[in-house]
Every structure is written in C-alpha cells, then in structure tokens.
Amino acid sequence: MLRHELQPGKLVAGAVLTLAGVLYAGDAGGAWETPWFVAIPLVTGGLCLAGAVAFVTGLIRRRREAGRTAADEPGPDTAC
After folding, report:
1. Which residues cross the membrane (predicted)?
2. pTM (2 d.p.)
C-alpha cells in the first residue's frame, strides 16, 4: 500500500532544482564554468514545466475519479 500519491509536478520541480544545484556546485568546485545567466531560464522553465505537469495530472485524476464514482453507483437500470 502506498503512503501517498505520486505527484509528478513536484518530481519535475525537484529534478530541475537539483540540476541547477549540481551545475552551480560544479562551478563552485572548479569542475566546470557555468555562466550566471543559466539559472534564470533553467529554474523558470523548470517550474513552468512542473506547473503544466501538475495541471495535467490534476485533470487526469479528476477525470478518473469522476468515471469511477459514476460507474460504482447503482443507476436506475440496475436491479437491487
């Protein structure tokens, strides 16, 4: 049994922010050179992508829940 639902939007946001952290940690450690202006489009684009993924996930979950409740409830055609 799962303890909580998978939330793909938060997964995408976490992955993008982790990537930004790794890029700047590598820059701080001297492994490579990362320009300062890389963080703005990376974080902004990643958060926009995470928001879109969360929105689509919410639509899918609402649609599934609506379909399940309508199918599970006895209708007028169902004999009890």
Report:
1. 35-60
2. 0.76
